[in-house]
Design a protein that fits this description.
Structural class of chain B: alpha/beta
Order of helices and strands of chain B: HEHHHEHEHEEHEHEEHEHH
Oligomer: heterodimer
Strand order of the largest sheet of chain B: 7-8-6-9
Number of helices of chain B: 11
Largest sheet of chain B: 4 strands, antiparallel
CATH topology of the largest domain in chain B: Rossmann fold
Distance between the termini of chain A: 35 Å
Number of domains of chain A: 1
CATH class of the largest domain in chain B: Alpha Beta
Shape of chain B: elongated
Helix content of chain B: 25-40%
Number of domains of chain B: 2
Radius of gyration of chain B: 23 Å
Largest sheet of chain A: none
Chain lengths: 275, 260
């Protein structure tokens, strides 16, 4: 045991904790219905609204992209933010704490496993959406698009890691925040319309959520003709802010976990009384 | 090693198994769950799989290695938890009520497993927390009796029991009496008293200052309306030691939050 470096333990932990999420996607097929068919229904509703009001065809693309990205938000909310709380309930958290590994590695494993499984869902939603509604996209700048997409995911899952620690600290009541956050975030982040439509102040406030800026930037890079007028900020600026958010959330998540561990050691228990 | 100053360092040397654990992920098989936990200790995959295979044979789960854990019974799940605890061959293993809720056969298998592990590795330590005194007697080299957070006695089980050999220990079964407390407790010749209610009788454990005191105690019980069903003079057990040092019955202590 002593000869294994902290680095080896860290990466093996990441792989080990990612594994249930990766394999779970193969074994629990109900996600095909709940996470592809149901989001597509919502996308379809918006598509017909835009068609009814004769909105420019790019709006259909906005909706399909928003529908695909919403899978990541739901995954962060239900499988990251709430996860440590559930791990405590099932008894896994105690074993994570006893093991000589980093709690950040556990969270990173959850995040990477969740990203993998969710990417399958997002690809399915975007592919089916494009085929069904004849969406055409023009990739303006592949490296920046990839950069925006990956940085959005890092920032988003960083936020998930932070929420996970906070939900654990504040217990069951905080977990109900997942219910509370789900719909408002899909509104203020502009999943189904350009966020600028909400006004600069709301869009700026909603930018604390990485999915807001990520979606806006990706729309600019995929539908350049439209976002000249509708974009919130230039894509390069949004990429910079996303990178800042990613670093900020990861640092805060690490601090929240360290605080939780200190509190647990001081109190001599993993859960706060009454939770 | 300083536990407070180097908590990460300490974790490399310890393991834990709790009774009634529901850890792991239901969609994964036994083998996959165990492999996952081995990764949190940085074990090489090939070494981990070989060790898992070996330990599953020991606990009699080798034919279930590819069963998803949501299909397992409580006993099978606890066997898997044991394998998880011993997988990394920890120097110190914490067992917290490890046989809680298990059937007799499974509990016996797991106790045998622990005994063998300790016999083969003299440099290893197990810290067992249990309310099952016979389990502590069977597995432990030293037993600490804790009541309300204080250690009241700590020694080898044989030494603790030997301390009671000068006293007279009896177990009575009495019908037609709901509570023997008033008739027995407070008498100068009764060192310790505990009772357990059953459907049609009560069971009274007594530690008396001498055999001669028994006649007077029985008279008091009969005067209170009790009818003696059976009387057994016993060698001291760890439960008697508990009764002696704590001052009240084991079940009472559990109700009040004490432990051993």
């Amino acid at each position: 045991m002593r000869s294994r470096s902290a680095w080896t333990i860290f990466w093996r932990t990441v792989l080990g904790r990612a594994y249930p999420r990766i394999i779970g996607a193969q074994r629990e097929k109900s996600w095909v219905f709940f996470e592809i068919f149901l989001p597509l229904l919502q996308v379809t509703a918006y598509v017909y609204i835009y068609r009814a009001i004769e909105a420019p065809p790019e709006f259909i693309g906005f909706v399909v992209l928003g529908g695909a990205m919403s899978a990541y938000w739901l995954n962060v909310l239900w499988s990251m933010a709430s996860q440590l709380y559930w791990e405590k309930e099932t008894g896994n958290l105690e074993l994570y704490i006893v093991a000589p590994t980093s709690r950040m590695a556990i969270l990173l494993g959850m995040a990477l496993g969740g990203m993998f499984a969710t990417t399958l869902r997002a690809i399915a939603v975007i592919t089916i959406g494009m085929l069904l509604f004849h969406v055409s996209m023009t990739v303006r700048n592949v490296p920046v698009l990839l950069g925006v997409f990956l940085t959005t995911l890092v920032a988003l899952y960083g936020l998930g890691m932070l929420l996970s620690s906070l939900f654990l600290l504040f217990g069951r009541e905080a977990w109900h925040l997942s219910n509370l956050l789900q719909e408002p975030v899909s509104l203020v982040s502009g999943f189904y319309f350009p966020v600028r439509a909400l006004g600069q102040v709301v869009a700026a406030a909603a930018s604390i959520l990485p999915i807001t800026l990520g979606l806006d930037a990706m729309r600019q890079l995929l539908f350049p003709a439209m976002l000249g007028d509708l974009r919130f900020l230039p894509a390069e600026v949004e990429l910079g802010i996303l990178a800042g958010l990613a670093v900020l959330f990861l640092i805060l998540a690490r601090r929240a976990l360290a605080y939780f561990e200190t509190l647990a050691r001081r109190e001599g228990r993993l859960s706060i009384r009454g939770q | 090693m300083d536990v407070a100053a180097d908590p990460k360092g300490v974790r490399r040397h310890i393991g834990m198994v709790s009774g009634g654990e529901t850890s792991g992920y239901g969609l994964l098989t036994i083998e996959e769950n165990l492999w996952m936990f081995s990764q949190f200790y940085g074990m090489d995959t090939r070494a981990a799989k070989a060790r898992i295979k070996e330990l599953l044979v020991v606990v009699g789960l080798s034919d279930r290695s590819r069963t998803r854990i949501y299909h397992l019974s409580t006993g099978m799940r606890q066997k898997m938890n044991f394998v998880r605890g011993f997988l990394t061959d920890p120097e110190i293993l914490f067992l917290d009520e490890p046989t809680l809720g298990l059937d007799v056969q499974t509990a016996r298998t797991l106790r045998g497993f622990v005994s063998n592990w300790l016999a083969e590795r003299r440099d290893r330590t197990i810290l067992l927390t249990t309310h099952a005194m016979h389990e502590a007697d069977e597995l432990c080299g030293r037993v600490a009796i804790i009541d309300k957070g204080r250690i009241l006695a700590c020694d080898a089980p044989a030494v603790l029991k030997r301390g009671l050999q000068s006293e007279a220990i009896f177990r009575l079964r009495i019908a037609d009496l709901a509570d023997a407390h008033a008739a027995v407790a407070g008498r100068a010749d009764v060192s310790r008293f505990a009772q357990t209610a059953h459907d049609e009788h009560i069971e009274v454990d007594l530690i008396l200052s001498s055999d001669a005191a028994l006649t007077d105690v029985l008279s008091s019980l009969q005067a209170a309306g009790g009818r003696l069903l059976s009387l057994e003079k016993r060698e001291p057990t760890l439960e008697d030691v508990f009764l002696h040092v704590v001052g009240h019955g084991f079940e009472d202590a559990q109700r009040e939050g004490g432990g051993t």
